[in-house]
Amino acid sequence: MHRYISAFWIFVLSGFVMSGIGSASWAEQLPMADRASVFGKRQPLFATSGTAVAAPHNRSSLFAGQSAGSLLAPYPARAKQKPTSARFSLGMTSNSPLARIRHLIASAEAGKMGYDAVQHAAKRKPKKRPTDMTVQEIYTWIANTPGQQHAIGRYQFIPATLRRLVKKRGVSRHAVFDRKLQDELADELLAEAGVHKMMSGNLTRRQFMHNLAKIWAGLPTSSGESYYKGVAGNKATMSWAHFDSEMRRIFPS
């Protein structure tokens, strides 16, 4: 009897299982709420069309195409940088070789007055500061005060040299004798002394220094004395050792 009952239930259960094949499974026949209670909130292994698969938290796929977080993802776009142009003027920038030479010369020639320096022995000085005067006003001052020293400005231009440089560079007599003009005139003298030849290797630093001493009386020759020693009271205002060490700093090789 029990054997027949067992066979009966096996037959019933087999029919129930077979009824799900080829049609909706028993799980699909459950209401959605009941499905959730059976399967919980598990994510599908493969997403169907229109279904997004949630990526595991804080993990990235090695082969995730080009999505964010993938090792194959493209690098984020870099911000475009504005091109910078190097601005360097051999003579006008404060740290250029010519500017440093000018500073060295000024320390020997003009002292603390700098661009407004007037030769200390001049008894009748201009009524205006040199940087406020025009070239013509300086010429007039020179003409009206004969018999005295007239070296003027940061580089102590004497009258003959000033006139020659103004003419050579085509400077207007109405031009103001300001810092810019004074530096430009000094650079002309440096060029005449051979600064560009020296920088290109066609003149030794020592030869260039000797040429500078022939232009500016406050600079020493290798003897330690001014090239113009004994002329109009001229003398070197710095030692050769200092002059040489400073020039080596500006031009190491």
State Rg: 46 Å
Give the class from helix and strand content and strand pairing. Answer: mainly alpha
Q: Which geometry do the CA atoms define?
A: globular
Helix residue percentage: 25-40%
> How many strand units?
0
Q: Helix and strand succession?
A: HHHHHHHHH
Beta-strand share of residues: under 5%
What topology emerges from the helices and strands here?
Elements: H1 2-18, H2 32-39, H3 97-109, H4 135-144, H5 159-169, H6 179-193, H7 195-199, H8 205-215, H9 240-250
Helix pairs in contact: 3-9
Write up this protein:
Among the domains are: 110-175, no CATH class; 194-253, no CATH class. α3 packs antiparallel against α9. It is globular. The protein starts with a helix and ends with a helix. It contains nine helices and no strands. The chain has 253 residues and is an all-alpha fold.
Short structural summary:
This protein is mostly helical and 253 residues long. Among the domains are: 110-175, no CATH class; 194-253, no CATH class. Helices cover 40% and strands 0% of the residues.
Task: Name its key features.
253 residues, mainly alpha, 9 helices
